[in-house]
Write a structure and sequence with these properties.
Oligomer: single chain
Bound molecules: inosinic acid
Distance between the termini: 14 Å
Strand order of the largest sheet: 9-7-5-2-10-1-11-15-19-20
CATH class of the largest domain: Alpha Beta
Shape: globular
Radius of gyration: 22 Å
Length: 432
C-alpha cells in the first residue's frame, strides 16, 4: 500500500520522525511540494539529522528518495545536503531522483523573498527567506526554470539573463550579474544530471512492479496555499491534493493518509494562531518542547491543542488516522486545556473559518482535562501510559474525529507507541 504522511497543523509536527519510522515498510519515499524551507529532524542512535530537501527515508539503505515536480529545488542546497549526508556516512549514491519538471530556486529568488518581506512591513509573512515564494511565482507566471532545462545551456543562458534582468528592475539597490549565476548552475547541472528522471513514469512503473511508496508532506495543512490561513501560508499545496499534482499520480495511488499532529500546537512566522499562549505557559511549552525552528532557529509560537484545526485537517486531507507527537512535553502539567470550538461575535463555531478577519475575532472555547504527573518520555506501550494521558489521547481522538494510531513519546525511533489494532481498524496495513 502507498501511504501519505503530512502535517495537520502549521508544520513542525514531527513528520520527519514518523516518516523515518515507517520507511522500512516502503521502497520509495517521495516529497511532493515545498523546498528547503522544510527541516525534518530525525534522530538515529542519538545522532541528529536535519533533512531539508531529501526525503526523510534516506537514512534507510536501499530506499529510493524522490523529489517530485511540485518541489522547488535550490541546487546549491540540494548538493550541500547530499554532501553533508555522505560525510555522515549515509550512502546516497543512486538513491536520489529529481523530477525534470521540478522548478529551480536560484540566487535571485532569495533576494526577491527578502525584498518582498521588507516591502510588506507590518504585514510580512515571516518566511524562511529561502526564495520559496518567488520560485513558485515564476512557475505560475510561466517564466520558471526547470531541472530539465539544465540540459540545454543555450536556452538556460537566455532564461537566466531575462530573469536576472527582471530581478534587477525590482531590486534596485544592488545589481546582480547573470554570468556567475549561469556559470555556477552549469557546474551544478553536471552533478545533478544522473539523478534527473521523469518521476511520474518512474513511480508508475514502480507501482506496477509491486513497489510501495510513502508520500512525505512538508509544512502543514494550515500553511497550504489554498486551504491554509492565507496569506500567512507557504506557496505550495502541503495538503493531500499536492500529491497528485506534485508527483504526477492519480488519486487512487494514495491508499491511506496519516496526519501528524503535536499534542499541542505551534506555529513559526506570522499569522493567526487561535490557541496561542504568550505568557509563562507558552515559554514552558517552548522550552520543554525545544520549539525552535530547525531551519531558521526562530522561536516557535506555542499554544494548546486546537481540535477545530484538527477536524479541518481531517476534512481537507481525508485523514484516516493521526500520528500524535510530543506527548511527553505535557508531562507534569496540572491541567491541560483542549480547544473544542471558537467563540466569534457571540456565536459558537465548530468549523474552521475561511475568512481571516473572522478568525482574528475568534476566542478559543476550552475544556480542561486533568494532567498526569508520571513521565511519558520513552514509553513504548499504550497501556504503560498514565491513565490521564490515555484519557487525554481518547479525548483528542473524539474531538478530532479520527483515532491516533501512532503516539510518539521522544525523539528516538523507538520512543514510539504503535497501536496495531487501531491501524488495522482504519485499514492501514503496515507490518509494524
Ligand atoms: P516560506 O515557505 O519560506 O515562504 O514561508 C511561509 C510561511 O511558512 C512562514 O510562516 C514560515 O515560517 C512557514 N514555514 C515554511 N516552512 C515551514 C516549515 O517547514 N515548518 C514550519 N513553518 C514553515
Amino acid at each position: 500500500m502507498n501511504l501519505a504522511i503530512l502535517g495537520a497543523q502549521w508544520g513542525d509536527e514531527g513528520k520527519g520522525k514518523i516518516v523515518d519510522l515507517l520507511t522500512p515498510q516502503f521502497s520509495i519515499v517521495a516529497r511532493y511540494q515545498g523546498g528547503h524551507n522544510a527541516g525534518h529532524t530525525v534522530y538515529v542512535n542519538r545522532k541528529k539529522f536535519i533533512l531539508r530537501l531529501i526525503p526523510s527515508g534516506i537514512l534507510h539503505p536501499g530506499v529510493t528518495c524522490v523529489i517530485g515536480n511540485g518541489v522547488v529545488v535550490d541546487p546549491q542546497a540540494l548538493l550541500a545536503e547530499i554532501d553533508e549526508l555522505a560525510a555522515s556516512g549515509v550512502d546516497v549514491d543512486g538513491r536520489v531522483v529529481v523530477s525534470d519538471k521540478a522548478h529551480l530556486i536560484l540566487p535571485y529568488h532569495r533576494d526577491l523573498d527578502l525584498l518582498s518581506e521588507a516591502r510588506r512591513g507590518e504585514r510580512k509573512i515571516g518566511t524562511t527567506s529561502r526564495g520559496i515564494g518567488p520560485a513558485y511565482e515564476d512557475k505560475i507566471a510561466r517564466r520558471g526554470i526547470r531541472v530539465g532545462d539544465l540540459a540545454d545551456p543555450i536556452g538556460l543562458e537566455e532564461a537566466i539573463r531575462v530573469n536576472v534582468a527582471a530581478r534587477n528592475r525590482v531590486v534596485q539597490d544592488t545589481t546582480m550579474d547573470w554570468r556567475p549565476v549561469f556559470e555556477q548552475l552549469v557546474r551544478q547541472a553536471e552533478r545533478l544530471r544522473p539523478w534527473v528522471r521523469d518521476v511520474s513514469l518512474l513511480l508508475d512503473q514502480a507501482m506496477r512492479g509491486g513497489r510501495s511508496i510513502l508520500f512525505e508532506g512538508a509544512q502543514g495543512t494550515l500553511l497550504d496555499i489554498d486551504h491554509g490561513t492565507y496569506p500567512y501560508v507557504t506557496s505550495s499545496n502541503a495538503s493531500v491534493g499536492g500529491i497528485c499534482t506534485g508527483l504526477g499520480l492519480g488519486p487512487r495511488a494514495i491508499h491511506g493518509v496519516l496526519g501528524v499532529v503535536k499534542a499541542y500546537t505551534t506555529r513559526v512566522g506570522e499569522g493567526p494562531l487561535p490557541t496561542e499562549l504568550t505568557g509563562a505557559m507558552g515559554n514552558r511549552l517552548r522550552d520543554s518542547g525545544n520549539e525552535y525552528g530547525a531551519v531558521t532557529g526562530r522561536p516557535r509560537r506555542c499554544g494548546w491543542f486546537d481540535a477545530v484545526v484538527a477536524r479541518y485537517s481531517v476534512r481537507i486531507n481525508g485523514l484516516d488516522a493521526l500520528a500524535l507527537t510530543k506527548l511527553d512535553v505535557l508531562d507534569g502539567l496540572e491541567t491541560i486545556p483542549i480547544c473544542t470550538a471558537y467563540r466569534c461575535s457571540g456565536r459558537t463555531l465548530t468549523e474552521f473559518p475561511s475568512d481571516l478577519a473572522q478568525l482574528a475575532k475568534c476566542e478559543p472555547v476550552y475544556e480542561s482535562l486533568p494532567g498526569w504527573q508520571a513521565g511519558t518520555a520513552g514509553v513504548r506501550r499504550f497501556d504503560a501510559l498514565p491513565d490521564n494521558a490515555r484519557r487525554y489521547i481518547a479525548r483528542l481522538e473524539e474531538v478530532s474525529g479520527v483515532p491516533a494510531a501512532i503516539v510518539s513519546t521522544g525523539s528516538e525511533r523507538d520512543d514510539t507507541i504503535v497501536r496495531r489494532d487501531t491501524l488495522q481498524a482504519v485499514n492501514l496495513r503496515l507490518a509494524l
